[in-house]
Amino acid sequence: MSSKDLFKNRYRVIQLIIVCFAVIFLLRLLYLQVIDRKYVSLARNNAVKEVDVYPTRGLVYDRKGELIVYNEAIYDLMVIPKQAKGVDTVKLCELLGITKEDYVKRFMDMKKQKGYQYIPNVFFKQMSLKDYSRLQEYMYLFPGFYGQVRTIRKYPHRVAATILGDIGEVDDRQIKESGGYYKPGDYVGQSGIEKVYEKELGGKRGKKLVFFDVHNKEAGSFANGEYDTLAITGDNVITTLDIKLQEYGERLMQNKKGSIVAIEPRTGEILALVSSPGYDPNLLCGAVRGENFRALLTDSLLPLYSRPTQATYPPGSSFKPVVGLIALTEGVQGVNYTVPCSGVYNFAGLSLHCSHHHPSATNIQYALMQSCNPYFWQTFRNTIENRQYKDIHDIYAKWIAYCNSFGLGLKTGIDLPSEKSGNIPSIKYFDKMYGKTGWHSSTIISLGIGQGEILVTPLQMANIFATCANKGYWVTPHVVKKISDPVTGKDVTHRYEVHKSTVDPQYFDAVDEGLFQVVEAGTAKSAHVDGITLCGKTGTAQNPHGDNHSMFAGYAPYENPQIAIAVVVENGGYGAAYAAPIASLMVEKYLNDTIQTKRLPLEKKMLEGNLLNKYGVSINKSAGLNDSGDE
Amino acid sequence: MARQESIAGKIDWLTVFIYILLVLIGWMAIYSSVYTDEGKSIFDSGINSGKQFQWMVASAILAFIVLIVDSRFYTTFAYIFFGFILLFVLSVFVLGTKVKGQANWIRLGGFQMQPSELAKFGTALALSKFLSTLNVDVRRWRDKWKAFAIIGIPMLIVAGQGDAGSAIVFLSFSLVLFRDGLEPYYLIIGASVAVLSVLALIFSGTIIWTIPGKFVLIGALAFIAAILVYFNWKNRKTVMIIAAIWVASTAYIFSVDFAFSKLKPHQRDRINVLLGKEVEEGKDWNIKQSIIAIGSGGFTGKGYLNGTQTKLKFVPEQSTDFIFSSIGEEFGFLGSITIIVLYVGLFFRLLYLAERQRSKFSRIYGYCVASILFFHFLVNMGMVIGVAPVIGIPLPFVSYGGSSLLSFTVLLFIFVRLDTQRYETMR
Questions:
Q1: To the nearest whole angstrom, how far is the Cα of B85 from the nearest Cα of chain A?
Q2: Which residue in B has a C-alpha nearest to residue A9's C-alpha?
Q3: Which residues pair with A165 in a beta bridge?
């Protein structure tokens, strides 16, 4: 055998080796490319990502169509560092008003993120359109830089902060509750209308599929946008507020703590809801939000607290109409029931004093006009000691039900978050306090004049008088009138529940007459306005922590009520001192749109009234906050 | 002119055709791997495909020159070429610049090149020259050692420069030696060592039934040895050999463990990735993305310039070592078959041409060319489809890179030239 022949088969062996490896590779490729399909989805997950398209938030209008919340475009200056070569830094720094060191530092700060060179980084936050358009002229000098538009909420009237609310980043709880709809970094309403009407205002998020390269840079849309969905713009919200009246109310309440609630009695629409001190809602927008929120949170005057729906006070004399109406309905006394008033009321060993000096009341009208305490103590006693009932538990339960029918001791159901229900002390409460048989009409007598454990919110107080104005019913108070789809133009008007009070409507005439007399000739003469028949009742809530709270609640005009109002000025003294004049100014403004010349000094006095020293504050702290606006 | 025509008539056009096809496919794939939506032209010298085009033109000129030079030039000066190339490779220690952590590049005027590419070519010439010398027989120890030295010296120098990939390619010459008479058990021992290495690496560091993995492996081998000894009990010599092999294997398993610990961290990682062992996050990125690219290509591929892995740059080093992942993604399994068939066709054609040489030099040189190309194909493809560790060597004619394209072209066309003159002399 020649060596050539011997080695001939080695040629074959080498061919075999080559074929073996080729077959191994082909089998491996067959497996990778044809059999195992997981790589298709792996490649897709690599390259295609779902990007959210955020809708524009709905706008908010007042009852007259005035725009009160809108979106403002702001611009973030973005940069992709890898592309930022040959930038005219001097010009850029000059336009942005920053130093060269700041410029360098901003780039250094980006380095924390992995792959920062290839992805868009925020270089300069929240420029106004004006600043941005100035910058835009020179954009060709700044390769790698570009503007990215965002929107923030704007509140042109700078009032009604607690009603309108604010938007902020979702927290973990909200993400969980949304069932995964919200994602970290999303903005949602956090209070007020923004929160309650989040579903309507927020619109619906769209999504698009976008290619991203290995550096996480966008590289075009997937399948020409075939699978993308559009974002649906949020609905507009038309509120019941009269923004002019709201503004006026906030001005009247400046440098005072307290509330104003104005309701259109017939419809339950809130015309104004002043919480004082308030704050400029623009403070909680944009970049300055966090800092301002902390400042507001620690402010001793609690500006974030929505007093009209959350603060509770003993209603004092403003509660007397309810006490009277219950007694009349129960038939324990008539309209012309008389209680002699000598200034002192002796009862069950108690000796109670009337704060007013006046002739004895011979009917309920006069009693209301003079705000006679003995009259209403006696009236309450007559009601509670009614022999037709088995015992005090029985009659008191009935009495609570009457109060509830006025919306007291329960939430009114207003479309704002965190409303308080106030307090009508329960049977259980008294049983616990005094024992099951240990309490009598004398034990709870102070309820007759709206003192003691009874607590109401300013909103409930206004609601009592809306009920009086309507002669027996009230509509769930609300701040939103209708929702309007900006695309189709279709409106959805909400229906609100009508509540009947359980007192006999026939007695409202007498009570309303009394309330009219209060302003005409009684305790609230300071609230008298020529030409306007204002009805109401002053109140002075005893305050163990300082001066009494000044209160007034009422409605106008007597003949055809258009507005029911409640005013609380904390530590303002008698109802006639602050609350009644402020209420009268609000009513006059709403009904006549102007203040009579002869009442201007009163207006001035109210505007200038400053109670801050009573709250232990010498300056208006909120004045030191930063505003995001550039006006 | 007449002379050139006569050469043209004798050129093996099938080889040249496959060569041109591979270069063109590579060029398209390179363009795809650097393509972005900016839509630069394939000829744009700012991107790799444009540069590759320039190398292609240079290669064509070089191939032409190689074809018109008399093949006696290469045979006569084979040792001198080898000597100069060795010096050139050694000069890297002094003049070398670092590219991607490897100090095996040299800057010549405007461009960089890797002398290790030339070393393969020089070794092929020298080995062919030596083995074709009258009375040299690789089965004789005296000649065997000389042949080993011709292969081993440049291999060690290249390995010493940190280019493990190129050094491994020198193992391809064992196929040449095998064809020329080297005893088969060298290949068998080589293959066994390779298998044992892989097993040792898989078992090292693992724990099976509370026993360290390597002892389990040694125990398993002892069990196999015991069975073999039982059946060959009467043959003392065989028993001794079996025992010796077992002892050698045991020693080798321990030394693999030790050698592995001496590897550079990135080399350890590459081997661990392949063995499916846990590696630090991101260390297996390259191979993972390459496999995703190829796997997602499916049967027919995503279409040229439509591969998402390719276009969005998920595979690092794609235009050079990972070029096949672009072809696999955009042309699918059909593209993969095409590439493999082209290579296997080229290898078979080269072996066929080698076997028909009357000159021993030409035949051996043909085997050298086929073996070098085959090893590149083996290591590169194995890496890209995840069946071999990541060893950075190019896919011949297809990968981006001037020095590799030029040196493979010269390597191949010298053989094409030798083939045209196969009837002229018996060297």
A1: 29
A2: B179
A3: none
Tokens coding A171 = 């927290």
* Token pair 């503004």 in the structure block, residue: A247
Q: Is the pTM above the cut of 0.95?
A: no
> Touching check for A30 and chain B: CB below 8 Å?
yes
Give the list of residues 6+ apart from residue A558 with CB closer than 8 angstroms, or none.
Answer: A512, A516, A533, A534, A535
Nearest-angstrom CA–CA distance, A579 and A527: 9
In this prediction, the residues of chain B whose per-residue pLDDT falls under 70 are 1-5, 97-104, 108-112, 204-208, 274-283, 425-427
| A223 at B interface, C-beta within 8 A | no
Q: How far apart (Å, rounded) are the C-alpha atoms in residues A569 and A547?
A: 11
Asked if the C-beta of B314 comes within 8 angstroms of chain A's C-beta atoms, the answer is: yes
Interface contact B175-A14, CB threshold 8 A: yes
Q: Which of B38, B286, B287, B296 has the highest number of chain A CBs within 10 A, making it the mutation to test binding with A?
A: B296
Shortest distance, CA B312 to any CA of chain A (angstroms): 4
**CA angle, corner A124, sides to A118 and A128, nearest 5?**
130
Distance from CA of A210 to the nearest CA of B (A): 12
Distance of alpha carbon A369 from alpha carbon A524, whole angstroms: 9
ipTM reported for the complex, 2 dp: 0.90
**For the segment A56-94, what is each residue's pLDDT rounded down to a tens digit?**
899 999 999 999 999 988 888 888 887 788 888 899 998
Instruction: Give the C-alpha distances (Å, rounded to integers) separating B126 from B85, B104, B134, B369, B415.
Output: 11, 22, 14, 13, 14
Residues 6+ apart with CB under 8 A from B334: B299, B300, B301
Q: Which residues of A touch B293 (CB under 8 A)?
A: 43
**Residue B283 structure tokens:** 């260390």
B323-355 and B285-296 are packed helices; what angle lies between their axes, rounded to 10 degrees? 80
Give me the long-range contacts of B90-95 (CB less than 8 A, separation at least 24). B90/B157, B91/B115, B92/B161, B93/B161
Rounded Cα–Cα distance for residues A303 and A121 (Å): 36
Q: Residue A219: which of B292, B293, B312 has the nearest Cβ?
A: B312
